[in-house]
Protein: FHA domain-containing protein
Amino acid sequence: MLVHEMIPQGTTKFVIPDWCGNSDPKFCFTVHKRTGQVCDVVEFSKDRGFLVFGRDVGCCDIFVGHASVSRQHAAVVWHKNNYCYLLDLESESGTKINGRVLEPKVPMMIYPEDKITFGKSSRLLKFSDNFEKALYEREAYLKAAPVFPEFAEDVEGNLLDGKKAISPPPPKYPTAQEAMGTGYPTDQLAAAQPPPPAEQPPPPPPPPPPPAHR
Structure:
């Protein structure tokens, strides 16, 4: 368990975008140690379509216990059209998806098997569309884990060194309308839309008619 600095409570910079919809219960994140093992599963709340990751338990949903992680580091938001987006919240050390550094405040669509890292944390999140399989992999890890986890090979502990920030109650995040005039940039969030469906290629031309027999 990492010892982390005390952070002032009640501050928030995540704004719920207008396009936020409901989460899909079959999706989740598997949390992987540097060895590749699934050490935990992060599921979405049934009553809202987003998760905020960070180092301040007072204003995030999932606590990420690494010194390089910002108080509110990143958010995952479900679109009303059932697309899921990853958003870096202007973190100091960055958010990566499949090794690519995200541009702050610009939503990036994520797909199953995409890999996400926060700052310099050794924890890796993988987006999964099979919640039952994720739970099975976690149970297999827990059965094989050391009896005394404090003697495990890495110091970030379980989850992200993580406990969901549900006690005290989850923080209240402002909506885009509530944030107007507060100085928080919402233009890119509100403008985020899923990409249009790929155009189908035109059908091949019909074969030429056979030559006429003389």
User: Anything to note?
Assistant: The helical segments are 131-144, 176-179, 187-191. The two ends are 90 Å apart (CA to CA). The domain at 28-172 is CATH 2.60.200.20 (Tumour Suppressor Smad4). The chain has three helices and eleven strands.
